[in-house]
TrEMBL record:
The active site is at C73, C198. This is Diaminopimelate epimerase. It catalyses: (2S,6S)-2,6-diaminopimelate = meso-2,6-diaminopimelate. The keyword Cytoplasm applies. It comes from Flammeovirga pectinis. GO terms for biological process: lysine biosynthetic process via diaminopimelate. GO terms for molecular function: diaminopimelate epimerase activity.
């Protein structure tokens, strides 16, 4: 039997497994895909293992819903931090390892997780979109009416176009709603559908909003599943540091499943 927790961060939901004894077969992609399946399994946008790693409080091993190892997941990272806290791996501040390297995070008294994101490398500024890697690759395009926008059709077409079809990309559509606020909708690779939130995606959108609209930190970001915030320090043109993703990470239930 596999003991697991279900967590969600702004509607982005994850299966969380305490794998500090390294008993979960991380090469069994079919099992992971089954567990994430919303009809036949538990149902989730991804699966996260918490493992031990020398020099850090823990390691976060993230799988996409299709069963394959994923890149960094911002909302998954916040849920991993909250779960690791319940396991007693840290008190208020933690250092952990993820697919894109080391991260730090704090858990405040309101149970909000403040996660330090790694800065993007090269930021592409194109005529109608931005492209950058904020732990995962992200395409960002600004729109005027997200409420009536077909995120799935548009996102799928971009994710599977000639440039991105092989490696894939997450596709984000953002709308400016205020001086320091955005609405964001995201089509995620690996899930191959729109999700309720994407942490690395809203991070990319916030950076793009600073470049295109001179939007200042911190930026409030509304997603389908709730509210997130992105703070940052702009060092120079297209160079950023101290990028903090803030939002809730909420346990939903604990159960066992045969696996």
């Amino acid at each position: 039997m596999i003991n697991f927790w279900k967590y969600q961060g702004a509607g982005n939901d994850f299966i969380m497994i305490d794998d500090r004894n390294n008993t979960f077969n991380s090469n069994d992609f079919e099992k992971v895909a089954f567990l994430c399946h919303r009809r036949f399994g538990i149902g989730a946008d991804g699966l996260i293992l918490i493992r031990l790693k020398e020099g850090y409080d823990f390691e976060m091993v993230y799988f996409n819903a299709d069963g394959h190892l994923g890149s960094m997941c911002g909302n998954g990272g916040r849920c991993a931090v909250r779960f690791a806290h319940t396991l007693g791996l840290f008190e208020n501040k933690t250092s952990f390892w993820a697919a894109d390297g080391a991260h730090e995070a704090t858990l405040d008294d309101k149970q909000l997780v403040h996660l330090l994101m790694n800065p993007p490398g090269e930021i592409e500024v194109n005529n109608d979109h931005y492209f950058m890697d904020t732990g995962s690759p992200h395409y960002v395009r600004f729109e005027n009416d997200l409420a009536n926008f077909d995120c799935v059709t548009e996102g799928k077409a971009i994710r599977h176009n000639e440039r991105f079809n092989e490696e894939g990309t997450n596709v984000n559509f953002a709308q400016v709603t205020g001086k320091q606020s955005l609405d964001v909708r995201t089509f995620e690779r690996g899930v191959e559908d729109e999700t309720y939130a994407c942490g690395t995606g809203v991070t990319a959108c916030a950076i793009a909003a600073n470049i295109e609209h001179d939007m200042q930190s911190p930026i409030q970001v509304k997603v389908l599943g709730g509210q997130l915030a992105v703070g940052f320090t702009k060092v120079s043109d297209k160079k950023y540091t101290d990028i903090i993703l803030t939002g809730p990470a909420t346990p939903v239930f604990n159960a066992e499943i045969e696996g």
